[in-house]
Amino acid sequence: MIPTRFDYVAPTSVEDALSALAEAGDDAKIMAGGQSLLPVLRMRLNAPELVIDLGKIESLRGVRDDGDAIVIGAMTTHHEVLHDPLVNEHALLVARAVHDLADAQIRHRGTFGGALAHADPAGDLGAPVAALGADFVIAGSGGTRTVSADDFFVDIFETAIGEDEILTEVRIPKHTGWGAHYEKFVRIAHQWSIVGVAAAVKSDGSTISDARIGLTNMGSTPIRARGVEAGLAGAEATESGVQAACDRATEGTNPPSDLNGNADYRRHLAGVLTRRAVLKAAHV
Ligand SMILES: Cc1cc2nc3c(=O)[nH]c(=O)nc-3n(C[C@H](O)[C@H](O)[C@H](O)COP(=O)(O)OP(=O)(O)OC[C@H]3O[C@@H](n4cnc5c(N)ncnc54)[C@H](O)[C@@H]3O)c2cc1C
Q1: Which tens digit of pLDDT belongs to each residue from 86-133?
Q2: Residue 257 has pLDDT above 90, yes or no
Q3: How far is the centre of ligand 1, averaged over its atoms, from the C-alpha of 273 (Å)?
Q4: If you ran DSSP here, which 8-state letter would residue 187 be given?
Q5: What UniProt keywords are attached to this protein's entry (predicted)?
Q6: Residue 281: its pLDDT value, please?
Q7: Which of 36, 86, 149, 181 is the most core-located residue (most Cβ within 10 A)?
Q8: CA geometry: angle at 126 spanning 71 and 101, to 5°?
Q9: Atom 11, ligand 1: which residue's CA is nearest?
């Protein structure tokens, strides 16, 4: 289908984008890479009168070092994130998840901020950024505010970003030297996660000294598996050593049932995939 008629602007600064947003109110829609927005418009699930394209705002692009965190601009493409040296050195888990996200074409157009703002529970970026304790910087007419990952994801396709606000960047605390793995379960290549597990592990010899675990598609938002994290601290990095902790992967989850699998199947997957992800992150 063809989208309904809309006006289009491509401001070159966040301030101009916010002004356009404030002027149009509910009738405007932000566009980042357009990979999720355009299908929505073409299916006429949304019919904005104005599309505000962030593609010309250079300040929203790129990755920078900011002391104990790296900062990823909202308009940085998945491809750029995947190959960025800072991401690979300090937030390897993010690179691992982006590697498994969609196909090369979509990774060249889709953006880090767009995917997180879209907040699809099956999206692959929520779990790793939640696991690493990221903060989200959101700009509005009154200035910027910072929201923790725990508060950013509100519900299916719903985040803390207000209708008159723009996500500008994501701050990820450095996890330098941590092993990382994203275990994504799909039926066919390039599919959205049926279940995904993001694991970052700090090892001390053969012992896990610290761990961060996030779950994809095990509820309406990404879930930080804190029970698993607590159980892994001090565990031997062996199949049997991590088993009890990984059995806690379903704590606090509320997985959906759909054509790809029912909730019980997803719970089973969560335990199996968590064990695999942790052992691979610990290089076992
Ligand atoms: C065929 C296909 C397969 C895919 N497979 C996967 C997959 O396996 N895993 C996965 O995680 N994703 C997958 N995706 C989605 C991909 O990650 C998209 O890039 C992402 O969902 C949207 O990013 P975007 O930059 O294109 O945002 P857009 O489509 O432009 O925007 C998405 C939504 O976010 C809002 N938005 C965007 N940027 C901002 C901002 N800075 N501030 C406030 N609101 C904003 C928009 O208004 C819109 O509502 C797939 C997409 C397609 C088309």
Answers
A1: 999 999 999 999 999 999 999 999 999 999 999 999 999 999 999 999
A2: yes
A3: 25
A4: S
A5: FAD, Flavoprotein, Oxidoreductase
A6: 97
A7: 149
A8: 95
A9: 123
DSSP annotation of 157 reads T
Output the CA 231–ligand 1 centroid distance in Å.
34
Alpha-helix runs per DSSP H in 52-185:
78-83, 85-90, 92-99, 104-109, 112-118, 126-131, 149-152
* Residue 238 Cα to ligand 1 middle (Å): 37
Structure tokens at 203: 């090892």
What pTM value is reported for the model? Answer: 0.97
Sign of CA dihedral 35, 79, 55, 170: positive
Tell me: pLDDT of 26 over 90.
no
Report the nearest-CA residue for atom 20 of ligand 1. Answer: 115
Going by alpha carbons, the residue nearest to atom 17 of ligand 1 is: 115
Single out the residue of 280, 253, 283, 284 nearest to residue 268, CA to CA. Answer: 253
Per-residue pLDDT, 25: 81
Q: Which atom of ligand 1 is nearest to the CA of 77?
A: 25
Percentage of the chain beyond pLDDT 70 is 100
Phi-psi region of 104 (alpha: psi -120 to 50; beta: other; left: phi over 0): alpha
Ligand 1 proximal residues by C-beta, below 6 Å: 29-37, 54, 74, 101-102, 106, 110-111, 113-115, 117-118, 123-125, 161, 166-167, 192
- The terminus-to-terminus CA distance of the chain in angstroms comes to 49
Q: Which residues contact 109 (CB under 8 A, 6 or more apart)?
A: 33, 34, 35, 77
User: How far is 196 from 123, CA to CA, in rounded Å?
Assistant: 9
In this prediction, residue 125 carries a pLDDT of 98
Residue 155, helix vs strand vs coil: strand
SS3 271: helix
Q: Give the position, in ligand 1's atom list, of the atom nearest the Cα of 32.
A: 30
